[in-house]
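How it folds:
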Amino acid sequence: MAKKYLLKTLVLFAALLFPFFGLQGSAWPVTLEEAMQSAVGESYVIREQAEFVKVSRFSYISSIDPFLPKFEVYSSYIRIISPRTPISTYTGDLSDTTDSRDTYTFTGTISWRIFDGGERFAKRRGAFSAWEREKEKFKSVREEVLFNIKSSFYAALGAKGIVGKRQEAVQAAQKIYNLIRGRYEEGVAKKSELLQAEVRLLNTKIDLQKAGKEYEKALETVRSLIIIESKDPFDVEGPLTVPSYRGDYKALNDRALQVKPEIIAQQKEVDRLMNVYDQTKAAWYPKIDSYLQQTRQDKQFFPEGRSDAFIISFTFPLFDGVGRYYNMQGAMSAVNAARQRLAETRRTTSLDIAKALKDYELSIDDVSLYGQLVREATSNFNQLYGEYLEGKGDILSLLQSEKDLAAANENYVGSLARARVSLSYLQRAAYIE
């Protein structure tokens, strides 16, 4: 009877664990490096920022136009209603006194700006600063995507490890239950002891099912971040080990303040706004333009009358309201605001690094403590299990020790995953490539 019941429980136990082993055995394994490569290549936000970089690059290229000469053509037809006008007015030929109501004009002009108070240079420098800013933002977006994939990947690895530890807990609970079942049938154990062992076994199976669903959700997060359209099963693969990185706050902070994309991007924004200020300041300077112009005007569709001219124009607004002054004041206020934002970015960067380093150090300490707890819980369980086999221990202590061991194993795996995520966040905060 006991053997028949034992065989039945083993079959049920195997059926319970088969989905998890089957998932891991037949699923497509994905490593962290493969996940990061896929995320960087397929990420929508990275592609979006790459287009913004192209926009700013094209804007910078087009800013060369004001430095180049321009060629313009102008053509018109005029119908004079009254009075008629002598043709000599159009052609310049005084002997031609024929009147006409039709006038055809064609004008070609080559123009080039000689001086504009530095407005063209300021626009070009501003466009270059905007281009550099978008490139730094691209680095920041890429770093954010990599952090998200690393944190979700390690979370999935941790969930996978917890599934394994809960499988071990089910095995341990099953072993205790089988032991008590046999002793109960022999008349040594009490009915209450058998019921307590059965309750613990059912609880471990419930916990295993929950862990399996959490693992599936973690895999879906990874699938979404690496943009996998296929619904074929896949699995995360890789070691979940203790990080060995050690960092010094001062060194990390000094380096981050020099190279972190968010800080450099804000510096480029300050430069861009300074060039906007220079553009507004150029309104106080005169504009000097040169023109080479040819005009043809006649009563014919293809006019023959020709007039050539070279023109130098000087433009300076003596008074055009108060806009020039207040535009300069507004542009300088924008520069000052950007400088304050730069200082705030540097402050928050230093704070993020300090907090990330503390969290990482705490996570490493947790790994060490939970590892020690696993060793002690394992020793305690083995001792109580041996005592119970000899008839010296009680079932409550044995079940509690098994429960403590299962919790210690789960906490240890969780601490490893948190340590890896903490290191990833520290790498992002300090921009450690």
